[in-house]
C-alpha cells in the first residue's frame, strides 16, 4: 500500500541549503523510498514536494527528520504528512 508524504520547502534558499535539499531528495530516491518527487507551488514562500512510498511512512519520516536535524534545515523544510 502506498503512503503519501508531503514536504514544505522554502523557496528562498542559500547555496548550501539548496545543495542539502537536493541531497535529501536524491537520498530518498537512492534509498528506494520513492521513484519521483512532485513539486508544486504552495504560495509565495513555499513549495510542496510530495511523493508516494511503499515503505512504512514512519521510517521515511524518521529518515527525513534525521537529515533535517543533521544538516540544520529546520527553518528550510518540514514534513507536512
Write structural notes for this entry.
With 81 residues, the protein is α+β, with helices and mostly antiparallel strands. The protein is 37% helix and 28% strand. The chain has helices spanning 15-30, 57-70, and strands at residues 3-10, 38-41, 46-53, 77-79. It has a four-stranded antiparallel β-sheet, with helices on one face. A hairpin with a 4-residue loop joins strand 2 (38-41) and strand 3 (46-53). The protein is globular and about 30 Å long.
**Rg, alpha carbons:** 12 Å
Please mark out the parts with pLDDT under 50 across 5 or more consecutive residues, or reply none: none
* Class by SSE composition: alpha+beta
Describe the biggest sheet? 4 strands, antiparallel
- From the spread of the alpha carbons, the general shape counts as globular
Q: What topology, given as strand order, has the largest sheet?
A: 2-3-1-4
Number of strands: 4
H-E string: EHEEHE
Strand content: 25-35%
Percent of residues in helices: 25-40%
Number of helices: 2
Termini separation:
16 Å
Mean pLDDT: 93
Amino acid at each position: 500500500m502506498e503512503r503519501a508524504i508531503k514536504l514544505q520547502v522554502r523557496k528562498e534558499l542559500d547555496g548550501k541549503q539548496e545543495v542539502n535539499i537536493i541531497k535529501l531528495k536524491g537520498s530518498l530516491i537512492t534509498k528506494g523510498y520513492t521513484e519521483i518527487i512532485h513539486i508544486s507551488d504552495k504560495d509565495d514562500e513555499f513549495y510542496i514536494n510530495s511523493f508516494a512510498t511503499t515503505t512504512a511512512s514512519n521510517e521515511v519520516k524518521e529518515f527525513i527528520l534525521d537529515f533535517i536535524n543533521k544538516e540544520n534545515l529546520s527553518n528550510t523544510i518540514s514534513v507536512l504528512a
